[in-house]
Write a structure and sequence with these properties.
The protein is an alpha/beta fold. The protein has a domain of about 120 residues: Thiolase/Chalcone synthase (Peroxisomal Thiolase, Chain A, domain 1, 3-Layer(aba) Sandwich), CATH 3.40.47.10. The protein is built from eleven helices and twelve strands. Helix 1 packs across helix 2. It is globular, with a radius of gyration of 20 Å.
């Protein structure tokens, strides 16, 4: 279904910080609100005009969107909703906000995702019997496999075996991701998308981006036994926030119809949990074959929230994507994965490439793709107007 009468006119994100790093003492609202308010300032819209806030988050609980809304100075009547589709949360929040505005339920909405894993509440599992102790529930929602599910690492190892992707190929992909992110940083392509939360240089840089060589990558031990997946070729948990501003046709025209993004189509799907890592491939194929006609060969960029090098390599191979199209400025392996914010970051990246980029013109296109735990995936096609 094409949605063309709702416009994304601004998009911002924080720097992505490692767990216990850059944002270690910042609560969710501390990471979120400066980004949200800067996006509104970029759009020339006062906070009191916002009618809806939709937030992707996986850890805070108790509808953190409402707390963020109130502390950011959005009006009391602003509706606030939090959603959890794990890594796809932020992208789904943006998708819902665009459709809400397009349907006439709001004139101005803010949407995206935020995650502060460093300060998130700890979760405890109830003891199974009176004789057991409570135990912590980890960041990876797969628990400890008692229900027969594969953990994320087990799924990556299984995909590597099925697709015949050896460790050296995974390590090379990870190094390439860091190199691309480093080159983009040095070329200042992140300057107008990252909101420094303090006036310090490190606040304007993604903390995990590094310049590893093959010796560095080879030094990481496998996470499982004699496997191929390591901490160097997977996406590490991280903290961060990303938001966009969505406005109606009337508001868009009233501010002079600036360059913006519209959603041209979206596809969501589920697969068997055992095929979790392959769900994004299926969702992207659905998007490409749909009425929208998101021809993958015509995209300026495809931003993919990969969980590992294995998943990214399989995704690229299955869809026949050119090297320069998939995560051209590096992906989550370099930046880190801020769960609920991860896929919202993809939209901010597309906004930079398709709108902020001086070479971009009307009609340029891009796709954001994210998986979600349990065999789910979402792919959204954006077009510049």
């Amino acid at each position: 279904m094409t949605v063309g009468n709702a416009y994304i006119i601004a998009a911002r994100r924080s720097a992505i910080g490692r767990l216990g790093g850059l944002h270690r003492n910042r609560r969710l609202e501390d990471v979120s609100n400066p980004v949200l308010l800067q996006a509104l300032d970029d759009a020339g819209i006062e906070p009191k005009r916002v009618e809806a806030l939709i937030l992707g988050n996986t850890t805070a609980g108790n509808n953190p969107a409402r707390l963020i809304s109130l502390l950011a100075g959005l009006p009391d009547h602003c509706t606030a909703m939090s959603i959890d589709r794990h890594s796809a949360s932020g992208l789904e929040a943006i998708n819902l906000a665009v459709r809400r505005v397009a349907d006439g339920d709001a004139e101005i909405a803010v949407a995206g995702g935020a995650e502060s894993l460093s300060t998130a509440p700890w979760r405890l599992a109830k003891p199974r019997t009176l004789f057991h102790m409570p135990r912590f529930i980890g960041l990876a929602q797969a628990d400890n496999g008692e229900g027969g599910e594969q953990t994320a690492i087990e799924a990556a190892e299984a995909l590597a075996a099925r697709s015949n992707i050896p460790r050296n190929v995974q390590d090379e992909y990870a190094i390439t991701s860091h190199i691309r992110a480093t080159l983009a940083r040095d070329a200042r392509r992140f300057v107008h998308e990252i909101v420094p939360l303090k006036a310090r240089g490190e606040e304007a840089r993604d903390e995990l981006v590094d310049e590893p060589d093959i010796d560095d990558m080879e030094s990481y031990p496998p996470i499982l036994g004699d496997g191929t997946v390591t901490a160097g070729n997977t996406s590490l948990p991280a903290d961060g926030a990303a938001f966009v501003v969505v406005v109606s046709e009337a508001v868009y025209r009233s501010i002079g119809a600036p360059p913006a993004l519209v959603i041209a189509g979206a596809a969501s799907t589920g697969v068997a949990p055992a095929a979790d890592l392959e769900a994004p491939i299926i969702a992207t194929r659905m998007l490409a074959s749909g009425r929208d006609g998101a021809s993958l060969g015509k995209q300026q960029a495809i931003e993919f929230a990969e969980t590992s090098a294995v998943q990214a390599i399989a995704f690229k191979s299955a869809l026949g994507l050119a090297d320069e199209v998939l995560n051209p400025d590096g992906g989550q392996i370099a930046r880190g994965q801020p769960a609920g914010a991860a896929s919202a970051v993809l939209v901010v990246r597309l906004f930079t490439r398709l709108v902020r980029n001086e070479a971009a013109t009307a009609g340029w296109q891009g796709v954001a793709v994210s998986g979600a735990s349990g065999g789910q995936a979402l792919a959204v096609h954006f077009r510049r107007v």
